Amino acid sequence: MRTRGPLALGATAVLAFGLVSCADLGGLDLDTVGAPDKTTYVKLALNQSESHPSFIALENLSERFEERTDGRWVIEVFPNEQLGSQQEVLQFVMSSAIEMAIVSGTQLENLNKDFQVLNMPTTFGSVDHQMGVVRDQDLMEPLFTSLEDQNISVIGGFTQGSRSIYTSDSPVLTPADMAGRKIRVQESDMHIRMIQLMGGSATPLSYGEVYTAIQSGVLDGAENNEVSYVTQNHYEVAEHWSQTEHLVGLDYMVMRHDLLEAMSEQDRDAFLDEWDKAMVEHTDLWNAETAQAIEDAKAGGATFHEVDRAAFQEALAPIKDEFLTTPFQRELFDKVRAADTAESTDPESGE
Q: Model-level pTM?
């Protein structure tokens, strides 16, 4: 079994939390990983539940990789933050306590501000644009290898979908409608500034507190993707969904760099190939779940509103110059944006 129940996980979590100063909490002998006479077990931390597209795609990745290596490698997926919060598991990967984790873009910003390029509003025009960029190994290589000196290899990413504004009393159709509204954001300077530029008052708050805060009037709304809007029942207290699509969010797969280097070339190539398939599968699952979430929200009483998207894009335009401060960041941003233009004008795309 690749997943772990609460009782088994308790011991693992205690081990990880209690021994973080040890050099290799995973207990892996890097000289023998993937050897033909043994099974190498790899721990992968995830903050989502077993029904989430990320978990499903990772489980399928594990099954394919195990089969492809004749059982020499087994990826054990630990969902529901059972190995710790995203901030904690990132530290565990760095210290070799665990081997892999899925973490949000804001976590990697804390290690290298260059990741702001991919986490910034206006960078991606759509989920397809985003995932085309993330799967472009040549384009991503300088950024994804930038944390290797901290024992982190960034393998790729899973989309968080397009994020929009949802509010409790009336819809937001233009930036002017954001005036005076308290909107929950993640704890990120860039995301706080994002809401300010859109005309609202940014309020960083724990994700789990949003429902009650909107219900009590502490918040006027929040910004997120449709799947989270439904799974957290936020449509019950904020029935107006305004399709701003101001940000396409991204989670990253991070892995111990020393472990990736210790893999045989054949096993590494097989793993990276299966991971690329996992990114494609996750995107398909995400798109299907998003469509279902929209239907569920509407059935629950939510109203979806078209907005003046050009006005929001114009309002957000200054964020590029405020947060992209180095030649590398600006060059990467321009290359990513050019990829969107290339896709939209590709004569084979039919668009």
A: 0.84
